[in-house]
């Protein structure tokens, strides 16, 4: 074999071995940075929460390195849409399925209820409501990027603001009538804001919602969706996901 040909063949072999032997790239996860206790940035700038802990645990089971970054929710979704991050955890919508591969086994599950001001003049009427349609005449406060609200609150009077803190502060000040969210999110946030004595939860349960790992169509990790499906199922069966969630209650 000629020296040049031999060298090219050897170089190609070494390159293939390097590629095949190289560690898998890091899974770059992004989250809503103001959705405690599911995902939020702490005082040191580190992402914390149920979603972060579950993804850490799942990635560890699969031997995958993972990083966690938080952003305003709209921006986080755009980072995945435009190939600047690998995935997020969220409610699935038709729009999100257009640019991600959804892992159908949930990361976590949430119940949606309604909250209003403790001094609301129509509190008795609000507490007696049995369907979402009964709130048509009231102003519902919501944050920008909430997929559930975008789908289910069409035709309602909705005032959007940039984050969950603003929603609760406006609700406590009487600048809106209702907010729809998970009680775990609500009471965690209200205690932080010192507003837990000014807001009440209504008895109506609107929905049980699941949050799923959504991996961008551009990401190499979309081919690991079945692996994540299997591992999340195993973690749920072993009770590990329940134990993670219990730490935040």
From TrEMBL:
SUPFAM superfamilies the UniProt entry points to: Periplasmic binding protein-like II
Keywords in alphabetical order: Signal
Keyword Signal: yes
Domain of life: Bacteria
Pfam families with a match to the protein in the record: SBP_bac_3 (PF00497)
Solute-binding protein family 3/N-terminal domain span: 26-249
Stored SMART domains: PBPb
Signal peptide span: 1-21
Membership in a protein family: Belongs to the bacterial solute-binding protein 3 family.
Identification of the protein by name: ABC transporter substrate-binding protein
Annotated source species: Aeromonas diversa CDC 2478-85
């Amino acid at each position: 074999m000629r020296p040049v040909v031999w060298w090219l063949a050897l170089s190609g072999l070494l390159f293939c071995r390097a590629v095949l032997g190289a560690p898998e790239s890091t899974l770059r996860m992004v989250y809503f940075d103001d959705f405690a206790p599911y995902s939020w940035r702490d005082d040191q700038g580190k992402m914390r929460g149920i979603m972060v802990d579950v993804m850490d645990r799942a990635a560890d089971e699969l031997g995958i390195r993972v990083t966690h970054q938080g952003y305003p929710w709209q921006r986080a979704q755009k980072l995945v849409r435009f190939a600047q991050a690998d995935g997020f955890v969220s409610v699935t919508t038709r729009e999100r399925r257009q640019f991600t591969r959804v892992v159908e086994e949930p990361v976590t599950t949430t119940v949606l209820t309604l909250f209003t001001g403790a001094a609301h003049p129509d509190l008795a009427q609000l507490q007696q409501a049995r369907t979402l349609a009964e709130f048509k005449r009231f102003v519902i406060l919501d944050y920008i990027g909430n997929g559930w609200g975008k789908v289910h609150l069409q035709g309602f009077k909705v005032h959007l603001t940039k984050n969950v803190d603003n929603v609760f502060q406006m609700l406590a000040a009487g600048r809106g009538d209702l907010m729809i969210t998970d009680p775990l999110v609500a009471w965690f946030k209200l205690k932080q804001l010192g507003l837990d004595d000014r807001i009440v939860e209504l008895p109506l349960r609107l929905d049980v919602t699941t949050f799923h790992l959504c991996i961008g169509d551009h990401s190499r990790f979309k081919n690991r969706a079945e692996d994540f499906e299997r591992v999340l199922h195993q973690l749920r069966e072993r009770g590990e996901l329940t134990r993670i969630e219990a730490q935040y209650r």
